[in-house]
Amino acid sequence: xxxxxxxxYNHRALPESYICPPETRPGKLSIPSxxxxxxxxxxxxxxxxxxxxxNVLRASQEFGFFQVVNHGVSEKVLNxxxxxxxxxxxMPMEEKASLYSEDPNKVCRLYTSNINYGxxxxxxxxxxxxxxxxxxxDCIKLWPQKPTRYRDVIRTFTVEGKKLGLTILELLTEGLGxxxxxxxxxxxxxxLLVANHYPPCPDPSLTLGLPKHCDPxxxxxxxxGHTFGLQVFKDGQWIGVxxxxxxxxxxxxxxxRIVSNNKLKSAEHRAVTNSKVARTTVGLFIxxxxxxxxxxxxxxxxxxxxxxxxxxxxxxxxxxxxxxxGDTELALQPFKLPFNQSVIS
Length: 345
Ligand code: OGA
Ligand code: NI
Description:
This protein is of the alpha+beta class and about 350 residues long.
């Protein structure tokens, strides 16, 4: 519990254990939070669906990242969600102590830094609340009881966020030429909520909130609020994801990269800190259940485009992914088919 950044950061210099090695430091150069990450107006899907499909597909192929506006999740739901999660992190430590755990298998937990505080070489400027969302009626009983409206507000956000995720997956299904409903059942059955809290940091140039990683799951929907901090690595450069009012950030995870046989990109991203204000983000990580078999969709492979990955259970991938601390290509290596390694690595 004492390890939570929000517990001790006030008025202290950056401890040495939070300083990243020089090659991963964000440095002092400000990254333009440019308009390069595509913004897709999902409201258009009703009028011109083929154009929306094309926009979502292109963004997923080229960037693995995009923002959506007019996405159907109301401004009230977004504001309530951000407010209740911010309130959670602002509560006194005693109120949150029972949720703190360093056991990664706990279904709902509050922890800090990254995958394993005890074994990592250096730490990250982040506290995390993480919980399962499926099956909802079982999980909700384990979610925080305070703030008192947490469960109600977050239930609505998870239900609406999941609906939006499935809508985007269906647009991708059409864009890729998969059979309708391809992602609807097993592949998108599970969901995790991860709320990230990055307190103001005494030296944002030397540390990271979250290291460079790709998400392991199918697709992620992130409410990033008003504060800049998310960056995407593309063509050897970091690009900032500009906070837009009422937008949600969407990114492709490794599961979807594999099922699409590399037609879609799982982009590397990280979070930087700032010295002025705390930044809070709320992510919904849609994935298959851990026992599901993941493999390239049969209809996307043929003699000319052989499968680039073998079939495996998602839980097998997850344990390897976490042992590699999220390193993108290393995490995928044992799942690639040997014949194709030279083509895709
Ligand atoms: C994540 C993530 C980005 C952010 O939680 O996987 O990439 O800006 N978060 O908090
Ligand atoms: Ni991520």
